[in-house]
Write a structure and sequence with these properties.
The protein is mainly β. It is about 0% helix and about 45% strand.
Length: about 280
């Protein structure tokens, strides 16, 4: 089974970089805001979902941090659950998943900015992991049917009414949607355990023919969030971050002093949420 590169699997000591603009693929020091927390997502108003070890926060546009937890007593959720927070939209609605203490299965949730929760699972799934939500309330993510890690990982789309469609790109055992924009474009990556190929993809709908792509020169390509301009943030297996523009061209993202850069999110304002391993 491949390493699934969950956005939640980030070690303490990585650094959050908000790259506000780029020049020749290099973020200048004047265009970079550096914090001590890795970024998981950034919305169009500049709010950032960040993680510190097993804790998650919403970084507001004024720089303040709002802790993210599921309160005990939340309807439909057992007390003491371990929650993972993955994506947010422009209204501050956040998606993620939770598992009971010591549990091997997870359920998905949608949390509004007012703190209201909707709990859901893909029918027949042992675990459901929402990854992103757009401004229309459409959620994408992954699910597994085995309670252990031995089975393949597939994708899903949940529309605003709660209807779920499955996403399974032919020829690949693992289909991992990571982002959805307001036009309904879905981004992510696929894995084939026979050829070991890992490639980025863009879908215009759950049953459309996928556009598969690779960062030139990269052994493996991981695509993450897609903004409303059709631009995709991602990285290669050797820690080269990129933005794939809507015309198919690539711009690499480098940070002075970094030995590796991982790019998880981009908004329409040119703000890029990345985290780095620094010398």
């Amino acid at each position: 089974m491949p390493t699934l590169r969950s956005k939640a699997s980030i070690t303490r000591g990585s650094r959050l970089i908000l790259a506000l603009c780029f020049s020749a693929g290099i973020a200048s020091p004047q265009a970079v805001t550096t914090l001590q927390l890795p970024a998981l997502d950034i919305n169009s108003v500049g709010q950032v979902l960040v993680q510190d070890s097993s804790s998650w926060y919403l970084r507001n546009i004024d720089g303040s941090l709002t802790p993210l937890t599921i309160p005990n007593g939340t309807p439909g959720v057992p007390d003491g659950v371990l929650a993972t927070w993955q994506g947010l939209n422009s209204s501050g609605t956040i998606v993620g998943s939770y598992a009971p203490p010591g549990g091997f299965t997870s359920q998905g949730f949608v949390r509004t900015s007012a703190g209201q929760y909707t709990i859901f699972s893909v029918p027949g799934a042992a675990s459901t992991a929402p990854i992103d939500i757009n401004d229309l309330g459409v959620v994408v993510g992954t699910y597994v049917t085995s309670p252990t890690s031995g089975g393949p990982t597939r994708g899903f789309l949940r529309d605003a009414s709660g209807q779920i469609q499955l996403i399974d790109i032919p020829g690949y055992s693992y289909t991992l949607p990571q982002g959805v924009n307001n036009q309904g474009q879905i981004s992510g990556w696929v894995y084939d355990p026979i050829s070991f190929a890992r490639r980025g993809f863009i879908l215009t709908s759950t049953n459309a023919t996928p556009l598969l792509f690779d960062l030139p020169g990269a052994m493996f390509t991981y695509a993450h969030h897609i903004n409303n301009l059709g631009e995709v943030a991602g990285e290669s297996s050797d820690g080269v971050a990129f933005i794939r523009r809507s015309n198919g061209s690539f711009q690499t993202v480098s940070i002075p002093g970094a030995i590796a850069v991982w790019d998880y999110a981009i908004n329409e304002n040119g703000q890029d949420g990345v985290f780095t391993s620094l010398r």
